[in-house]
Structure formats: structure tokens, C-alpha cells
Amino acid sequence: MMEFAVIGLAIADRFLLKRNAVKILHANQMDDPDVIRFVLGYQSQRAITSGTLTYSLRSKKRPKAVITRTRKLDFSHAGHNSEYLTFDRKLLELEAGEKLHGEWILDVKIERSCSLINPLYKIFPTCTKYSEEFEIA
């Protein structure tokens, strides 16, 4: 009987309480002559000790032109956090086959799978996705 109570608490923690949930607040484009840079703002209820940030930029005019980056999120704290997302202009121009004018779509995904107490976060990690369109000139 005790096993069912522990399993029930683990399921409630993972799917109802969502202690490891992350909320993406905004992605703002910054002016930089060498790179295309975005500031990603997100909020976390708990510090992220092992998480993955995946972000991509794709052309709305040429959907095959996509650049994707993945990196670890190890040094965030509980509350508001921010990260810089950068893309090299020359690499994007090479991928797009032309100058970088027009609409581009930024896709961001934060995945967390860390919990010392609840193993269900390893089996079913929490994912937060965000997408926004930007005009790049």
C-alpha cells in the first residue's frame, strides 16, 4: 500500500505540481553588426542544475535555411534568468543563399530532467517551447 502512495505522490509532483517547470517570458532582438543576438528571458521555480537549451533560426521565405544550436543550462537560479542566443551573420547568409533581409522565426526549447527525489522527471522531462517571428535587416 505504501508503494502506491509513493508512486501517486511522484505522479502528482510531476504532472500536477510541475516543480521543474520553466516559463519563457520573452526573446528580444539586439543590434549587433557581426552576429544576430537575442536576449531570452525565462523564469524557473527552482535552480536548473541540468537542463538543455535548444534554439534555431529559420527563414520564413526559405524554410530550408535553418541554423540550430544546443547547449547546457547549468548556471541558472530560481526566479528570473536570461541567456544570450547568438547566430553568426555570415553562416546564416551562407545557409540562406542570400542577404539576411526578411522574416525569420526563432524557436526555443528548454528541457529539464533533473530531480533528486522524483525519478519521473528523468523518464518524462519537462519541456517548454517558444516561437516568435523577427524582422532581420
Keywords:
137 residues, alpha+beta, four-stranded antiparallel beta sheet, three-stranded antiparallel beta sheet, elongated
Short description:
By secondary structure, the protein is an alpha+beta fold. The chain has helices at 2-17, 89-96, 120-123; strands spanning 22-30, 35-44, 51-59, 66-73, 79-88, 102-112, 126-136. It has a four-stranded antiparallel β-sheet. A three-stranded antiparallel β-sheet has the order 1-2-5.
Secondary structure: elements and pairs:
Elements lengths: L1 H16 L4 E9 L4 E10 L6 E9 L6 E8 L5 E10 H8 L5 E11 L7 H4 L2 E11 L1
Antiparallel strand pairs: 1-2, 2-5, 3-4, 3-6, 6-7
What does this protein look like?
The structure is a single chain. This protein has 137 residues and is an alpha+beta fold. It is built from three helices and seven strands, in the order αβββββαβαβ. It has helices at 2-17, 89-96, 120-123, and strands at 22-30, 35-44, 51-59, 66-73, 79-88, 102-112, 126-136. The strands form two sheets. A four-stranded antiparallel beta sheet has the order 4-3-6-7. Strands 1-2-5 form a three-stranded antiparallel beta sheet. A hairpin with a 4-residue loop joins β1 and β2.
